[in-house]
Amino acid sequence: MRPWKRHSLCTRGQEVTPGFSPGQRAHTIPSEPGFSPARPAANSSVCHCPAKIGPRTSNLEPWRRARTLLVGFAIALVSILASSATAAAQGVSKVGTTAADFLQIDVGPRAVAMGGAFVAGVDDASALYWNPAGIAHMRGSEMIASHTEWLADLTFDYLGVGLDFGNAGIAGVSVTMLSVPDMIVRTVDRQDGTGETFDAADMALGVSYGRAVTDRFAIGVTAKYIRQRIWHSEATAFALDIGTQFRTDFVGGLTIGAVMSNFGSDLKLNGRDLRTFVDPDPSQLGNNNRVPANFELDAAKLPLNFQFGITTTPVNSRLHKVTLNADALHPNSNNESLNLGIEYGYQERVFLRGGYRGMFLDEAEGGLSGGLGVHQTLFEGGIAKLDYAFRAGGRLGDVHVVGFGLTF
Fold this sequence. Notes:
two-stranded antiparallel ribbon, disordered N terminus
């Protein structure tokens, strides 16, 4: 009797023995000419290795996968909606109770277009603002610059640069500025103006570091110097942002992000504009009624914010990519709210975005946002990014944001 032959599809080193086993399928292999497919020849060898039959493909498979991802995303979204709706039912707003509100203005046209739902999905240089853990997922070094035509003729500008140091992690620096145009100085006696003008400006300088601890988990931190100025008076403070991102295998790579922003010292305004002259005892005649004094102002807290987000990609092919984001916010300057965003990308070159900001906030102005972006591959894998975003502001007016990014 001739020895059993190993089928070409058998696993390397696998012993082939006669007999059938559950889950195995026999196929005949001729050893000599004269083999008939209808009946195994006596001199043929039989291989009982598991059948190597590929899965049956269907045009519906991508859509079934997308449906599964959407169901998982909806479950996570419902849990966030429930917590945000419960908090909003409290009905107590803390608007206007903090200083340095410019720290709450969204940075970058991509994030603005997606309704500010960006904590879990950010993977570019705007992560220096949104979540410092996100810079660990940048495609090399990157810079971003954005300009926002804010409300009431204010301008808001942001510049961030992240540098990739390989296994040592990624470090970055950022500058945020809010500028107020010159205004006329008016007094009670000279209501048409004194001939002088004054301005105001806010600034935040940040230094960030982010690192991927594992292939799933990343952490980052940003240290910030904050300065607010109006004419000859100013206030300064220091703050920290600490963030994390965790990528899972759930519903096609659901990513969870969390960040604590603006945890730091209070702001207290000081300067020569607070000087005045007082009469220490108006009931006495002949005393000095112009004693120099300073107004003592209370310190104000920074706009501390805890933000939790999720992101998933139900469609991710060579041509099409759809990303869904949702963020829940817990600030100390307002009620809890929810931000939603969606992004569609075609060939990683053209992007359409939409979102809604401030769900469950009473008397919120606007909320809808949208935008688009174009990416172009440059030298040695570098990418140039040009983005635009629009945000409805209701009675306060609409907001327009343009930005440019460069990966190198």
